[in-house]
């Protein structure tokens, strides 16, 4: 029987040659092959090799300014090109991109996750309407995130027409080496991911790599005896794995996520009381999340994106005791529970179901969720939203484009201005702007089109833009101010702080002040009344 060989991290890096294409499967630091990635970095810094790599990844794999994950590869010379869904949590990689030191192609995260299926099947590419009208569209930017990429002469997407309809073709990407992670493997190399916080797209990526004749290297905590696993619990059969690397220090290089080594409540092993979830202080982020949640209806399937939504929506739902009224999902494949926030995005405490990351995007790109809550950087007069380029920094789309393209209702969550904004809240007085932000977010034209307002109108999509002081809605005629908080002066606090003049609803509403109170604000009662 074919079995993988057990090797050291140093031997694993020997297999990675200059100029090769390396792919890794993880999200944030969850399931990151830290032992191997650390050795790649050490080898390059000591010997200058491997170098000129192309790094392929569907999800962002870093933890802001913290070391580890794909930030290990953020060295000029080590990387030639990066093809990924998101790198917003790796400032060093964003610096390499903004300084034109590496080529950078950004593709929608869900399209990349599902590209592994197309590649494994030897298809000529993946066809999708996702990305049309955004910076992914080859007629706009083609996903090229800096001038060096625009000058490289390569295109990873093109437009094809089938039965009179336009699609983007996401071209296949040959993979030389794939890094995956499991909790254990047995003596025959069968891989278990039982303590990992996500299922991810491990198996499809393995299949795609095998199609190209590439090498699959798995990092695990330890090797166990054959017969330990229920066959249904094997994530990757051993015959599809070439090499196994044991983590050198499981407490630092094989953590469940960046913030902790292992918590069984985040992989479905146990359930903990909801009181274990901390209550958020009353800030503008919490107020925005509360107002955003007032849009939902009972029994909705919702998605929570990065930024303000991921940081506040889950904890607010737990505090309001509405987890039985709504079905929360996260792009990593989570259903139910309370999602972790910031650098631990993608896992949830007390999840009801964990499915593959690629399978989740089949739902998002196909059926579409009822409501998605997304962060945003800019909004323009046409309803276009920029969530992917902030000045010369380009964090990438992640699952943003996939999810917002097909969701029935899109709720963007953003502060009205940015950079030093200070706000206070009171049930009686409403909202007081203590200090205005330094830069405007509502602009004449966004820096990059991550969400196309005109196409949204053609899809009959409902779109709201929720801030701490007011709410806008996208209408056929354009962006309309539909709600204002008590205490806010429309001329001074809204119109003077934006670059375009919006439509103003004839029946302009006043925001319910319940969202400014301490303790639960009554979301459960609101939802139960609608049933």
UniProtKB/TrEMBL annotation:
<protein>
    <submittedName>
        <fullName>Acyl CoA:acetate/3-ketoacid CoA transferase</fullName>
    </submittedName>
</protein>
<dbReference type="InterPro" id="IPR037171">
    <property type="entry name" value="NagB/RpiA_transferase-like"/>
</dbReference>
<keyword id="KW-0808">Transferase</keyword>
<dbReference type="GO" id="GO:0008410">
    <property type="term" value="F:CoA-transferase activity"/>
</dbReference>
<dbReference type="InterPro" id="IPR014388">
    <property type="entry name" value="3-oxoacid_CoA-transferase"/>
</dbReference>
<feature type="active site" description="5-glutamyl coenzyme A thioester intermediate">
    <location>
        <position position="331"/>
    </location>
</feature>
<dbReference type="GO" id="GO:0046952">
    <property type="term" value="P:ketone body catabolic process"/>
</dbReference>
<comment type="similarity">
    <text>Belongs to the 3-oxoacid CoA-transferase family.</text>
</comment>
<dbReference type="Pfam" id="PF01144">
    <property type="entry name" value="CoA_trans"/>
</dbReference>
<dbReference type="InterPro" id="IPR004165">
    <property type="entry name" value="CoA_trans_fam_I"/>
</dbReference>
């Amino acid at each position: 029987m074919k079995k993988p060989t057990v090797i050291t991290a140093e031997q694993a890096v020997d297999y990675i040659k200059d100029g090769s294409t390396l792919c890794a499967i993880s999200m944030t630091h969850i399931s990151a092959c830290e032992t191997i990635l650390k050795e790649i970095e050490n080898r390059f810094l000591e010997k200058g090799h491997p170098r000129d790599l192309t790094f392929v990844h569907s999800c962002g794999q870093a933890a802001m300014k913290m070391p580890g994950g794909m930030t290990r590869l953020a060295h000029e010379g080590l990387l030639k090109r990066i093809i990924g869904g998101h790198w917003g949590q790796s400032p060093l990689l964003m610096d390499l991109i903004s300084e034109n030191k590496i080529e950078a192609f950004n593709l929608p995260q869900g399209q990349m996750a599902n590209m592994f299926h197309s590649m494994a099947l030897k298809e000529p590419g993946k066809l999708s309407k996702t990305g049309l009208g955004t910076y992914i569209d080859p007629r706009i930017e083609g996903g090229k995130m800096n001038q060096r990429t625009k000058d490289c002469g390569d295109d990873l997407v093109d437009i094809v027409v089938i039965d009179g309809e336009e699609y983007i073709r996401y071209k296949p990407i040959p993979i030389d080496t794939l890094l995956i992670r499991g909790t254990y493997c047995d003596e025959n190399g069968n891989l278990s991911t039982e303590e990992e916080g996500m299922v991810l797209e491990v198996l499809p990526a393995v299949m795609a790599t095998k199609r190209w004749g590439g090498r699959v290297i798995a990092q695990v905590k330890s090797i166990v005896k054959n017969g330990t696993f229920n066959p249904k619990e094997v994530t990757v059969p051993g015959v599809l794995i070439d090499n196994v690397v044991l983590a050198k220090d499981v407490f630092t290089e094989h953590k469940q996520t960046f913030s902790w080594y292992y918590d069984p409540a985040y992989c479905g092993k146990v359930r903990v009381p909801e009181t274990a979830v901390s209550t958020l202080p009353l800030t503008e982020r919490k107020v925005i999340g509360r107002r955003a949640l007032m849009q939902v209806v009972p029994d909705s399937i919702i998605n929570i994106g990065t930024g303000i939504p991921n940081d506040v929506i889950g904890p607010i739902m737990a505090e309001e005791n509405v987890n039985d009224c709504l079905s929360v999902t996260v792009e990593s494949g989570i259903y139910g529970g309370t999602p972790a926030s910031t650098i631990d995005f993608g896992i949830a405490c007390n999840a009801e179901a964990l499915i593959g990351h690629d399978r989740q995007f089949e739902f998002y790109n196909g059926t579409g969720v009822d409501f998605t809550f997304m962060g945003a950087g800019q909004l323009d007069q046409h309803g276009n939203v920029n969530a992917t380029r902030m000045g010369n920094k380009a964090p990438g789309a992640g699952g943003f484009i996939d999810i917002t393209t097909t969701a029935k209702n899109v709720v963007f969550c953003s502060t009205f201005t940015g950079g030093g904004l200070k706000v206070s809240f009171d049930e009686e007085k409403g909202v007081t702007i203590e200090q205005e932000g330094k830069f405007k977010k509502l602009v004449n034209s966004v820096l990059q089109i991550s969400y196309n307002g005109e196409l949204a109108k053609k899809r009959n999509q409902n779109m709201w833009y929720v801030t701490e002081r007011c709410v806008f809605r996208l209408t056929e005629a354009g962006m309309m101010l539909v709600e204002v908080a008590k205490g806010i002066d429309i001329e001074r606090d809204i119109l003077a702080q934006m670059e375009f003049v919006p439509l103003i609803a004839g029946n302009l509403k006043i925001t319910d002040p319940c969202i400014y109170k301490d303790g639960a604000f009554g979301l459960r009662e609101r939802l139960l009344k609608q049933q």
